Amino acid sequence: MANRRDSRIEPSFEGPPQTRSQTGLSVSEEDRVVPSNRKASAKRRSSKAKSSRGGRGRSRRGLFGVLGRLFYWCFVLAIWGGIAVAGVVIYYGAKMPAATTWSIPDRAPNIKIVSADGQLLANRGMSGGEAVGLHEMSPYIPEAVIAIEDRRFYSHFGVDPIGLSRAMVTNLLGGHFSQGGSTLTQQLAKNLFLKPDRTLERKVQEVLLALWLEHKHTKDQILEMYLNRVYFGSGAYGVEAASRRYFGKSARDVTLSEAALLAGLLKAPSRLSPARDPKAAEERSQLVLAAMREEGKISDKELKTALSAPATRSPSYWTGSENYVADTIMEELPDLIGDVRGDIVIDSTVDLNLQKLAEQSIRRLIDESGKKLNVTQGALVSIDDSGAVRAMVGGYDYSTSQFDRASEARRQPGSAFKPFVYMAALEGGRTPDSIRNDAPIKIGNWTPDNYGGKYFGKVTLATALAKSLNSVAAQLTMEVGPNAVVEAAHRMGIQSELQANTSIALGTSEVTPLELTSAYVPFANGGYKPDIHFIRRITTAEGKVLYDSGGGSAPRVVKPEIVGMMNSMMTGTVEIGTAKKAAFAWPSAGKTGTSQNSRDAWFVGYTANLTTGVWFGNDDGTAMKKVTGGALPAQAWHEFMVAAHEGVPVRPLPGTWKSTPADTIVPDDIPSADNNQPAPVPSASVGQQAPSSQAAAPATQAPAPARVARPAQTVDADGFNMPADDGTTASVGHPVPPGNVGGPLKKKKQTSILDILGGG
């Protein structure tokens, strides 16, 4: 029993194979019955299947888990980012003044200068243009600016997230900064309150200020402020200044193509300025037009028209000679009204039409003769009898040189200074009929030669002035004294310092064209010295008067009879003298002047309506090629005065002078010659009456009938071919009195009141 029970028991072999073989027992794999292993295998297969299905489920659950965690951390980061942004905003916002103190700063005041007839001369000030309402300016301007700078201007709240995101993406893809995301409101905030620093602080403050602007002002108000303050390049702040700068017109009259050009400048005002790079400005304007069409602001027809007729810029905003006038006005302004705190309008005395005529004449003559005669600059000043400056040209081209040669350049006037010598002589008792001997004279080591070396012997003062004889002017200066000449010139209006020496007779002391011209005005108005002025009135933009010249009274500086005699003599300069090219249909008078070696050429002349002075020369003082006052200056004067007097009723020059001819005169006011030679006796052909200070004619001779009192005219003279004593024409080769005629300088006789009253 035991053995059978044992035989049913499966033997257990725990030893190695050799031990198992030694027992004689052999068990094949088929004889093994292990039911528990089959169950385990099935379980394992079932477990693998379940494991496969569970893995796929866990994979799906893991993907959602990652996304969830990613969303979670993004949410967390967004919260912290928002906290950080809020912290930055609070930090930089705390550094700004309290919002209750924020206010729109006053726009830089504009100074509008208009001509006597209301035309615009210039806009000056920081902005360079008046403020123009949004409803006043061309509608194309705001449409173009919005289309290219801020398409969602009327829909965003001051900051445009869409535009900002688009700009960021574009800049990242491009690898460089090419677009900005600032709105017009942000740009205005930056212009009004902030410095142009590219810092985080400035950007944060810009956003805060933009939100405040949107809260305080309407969209139209913001756009109007922006257009009137933004920089358009070439020194133009505001759309009005830019329109006049580039197109020579108001912003009210800007066309579509011009508006596109202006809007295109805002991206890079200096680089895209048509004054600097017209091609770049035009290309940019085409982009603006395309943007306007895309936004539906213009039609296809308008686009085609604008592209076919691009904006044409004016030659130069700063070319006009009226800017010389504007500069002078700006210098005078502080003394009249102090600091300018708001927009003002200055009514000037300048006639813009006359100003243009003067500029055209100066430029034409230089263009035609400049190279041939070595002339590069010219100046012209015209003043009416009240002292109002009607035109002033300070140079050939203001855009190339802003130096005002009319009011700032001091040059030698040459013979144009002689009228003050003759006036002093007349005030000392001489008359236009007084005789002097035109001959080579010597004053110390100085010999004042006549132009061309020609001398004419015995001449009247009127003839000597008409022919601009240097020797006679020097003699008169010796007689009356240089101090008397200086006093007369200063009394008439010369302000520069004058050297009281004998050579002053030939205009060796320097003066400006403005002051020399102003000193001739008393000859034109009857002897009165008015205040020379450029400004008639100054008002605020609302019309409040801040200053009015008032046209005050002018003091008399010359006696009427002296004015009559001077006008009589200086008429000869135009009729038979050195300025015959200046003559025109009006009674006129004046004096030419040419400094040594033709460095300066002048003509200052006048009618009863206007006094005008003209100068030609070179800034560096180089000599011109034989240019005299009777050439270019007289031509320019003639052109200007003919146009200025067109349609104006003719008026005679003020003052009259009576001249009664006699067969014999005794010229006791002629100094005696040295070497015991008698003073030359004038020939009967001169036929002039002796002045009151001279000896009377013989009593046996019936006095000739007096001439009828007449407006100032030239006295009797025969021009450059005036006969000498022997009937020949005086010249260097003709025998003349000795060169030291007049003798040494004698002490001037003091004239008393009794002498003047007695005609002495």
From TrEMBL:
Positions of the Penicillin-binding protein transpeptidase domain: 385-609
Start-end of Basic residues biased regions: 40-58
InterPro entries attached to this UniProt entry: Beta-lactam/transpept-like, Glyco_trans_51, Glycosyltr_51/Transpeptidase, Lysozyme-like_dom_sf, PBP_transglycosylase, PCN-bd_Tpept
Family under the similarity heading: In the C-terminal section; belongs to the transpeptidase family.
Domain Glycosyl transferase family as annotated: residue spans: 129-292
Keywords, comma-separated and alphabetical: Carboxypeptidase, Cell shape, Cell wall biogenesis/degradation, Glycosyltransferase, Hydrolase, Membrane, Multifunctional enzyme, Peptidoglycan synthesis, Protease, Transferase, Transmembrane, Transmembrane helix
Protein known as: Penicillin-binding protein
Transmembrane segments: 70-94
Signal peptide: none
GO biological-process terms attached to the record: cell wall organization; peptidoglycan biosynthetic process; proteolysis; regulation of cell shape
Taxon lineage: Bacteria, Pseudomonadati, Pseudomonadota, Alphaproteobacteria, Hyphomicrobiales
Pathway: Cell wall biogenesis; peptidoglycan biosynthesis
Bias type Basic and acidic residues, positions: 1-11
Organism from which the protein derives: Mesorhizobium huakuii
Chain segments carrying region Disordered: 1-58, 653-760
Catalytic activity annotation: [GlcNAc-(1->4)-Mur2Ac(oyl-L-Ala-gamma-D-Glu-L-Lys-D-Ala-D-Ala)](n)-di-trans,octa-cis-undecaprenyl diphosphate + beta-D-GlcNAc-(1->4)-Mur2Ac(oyl-L-Ala-gamma-D-Glu-L-Lys-D-Ala-D-Ala)-di-trans,octa-cis-undecaprenyl diphosphate = [GlcNAc-(1->4)-Mur2Ac(oyl-L-Ala-gamma-D-Glu-L-Lys-D-Ala-D-Ala)](n+1)-di-trans,octa-cis-undecaprenyl diphosphate + di-trans,octa-cis-undecaprenyl diphosphate + H(+); Preferential cleavage: (Ac)2-L-Lys-D-Ala-|-D-Ala. Also transpeptidation of peptidyl-alanyl moieties that are N-acyl substituents of D-alanine
GO molecular function: penicillin binding; peptidoglycan glycosyltransferase activity; serine-type D-Ala-D-Ala carboxypeptidase activity
Cellular component annotations (GO), alphabetically ordered: outer membrane-bounded periplasmic space
NCBIfam families: PBP_1a_fam
